[in-house]
# Entry
Amino acid sequence: MSKNKLKKLDLANNLSKKKGFSTLHSKKIMNDLISILSLSLKKKKLHIKNIGSFKIIDKHERMGRNPKTKQTHIISARKSISFIASKKLIKLLNK
# Structure
């Protein structure tokens, strides 16, 4: 596991070590979890108790600029995800 990035495979390996599942079964669990979360999030908001809330933000088309070349271009409209951590998660992180 790298120090800066946590990959889906790292989560599956940790799950298989802690719970005794095979790595293949852990990968399937992770894929199913991500699929369920993304389907739930398509309803605009997802709240997971003691973890936080996710919601979809619609971003409008806007002008952008490449800081290196100073050229302007249009950034297309898109959807983005916002996450707000729960108070309990923030408290655990600050210990």
In short: The CA atoms of residues 61 and 77 lie 4 Å apart.
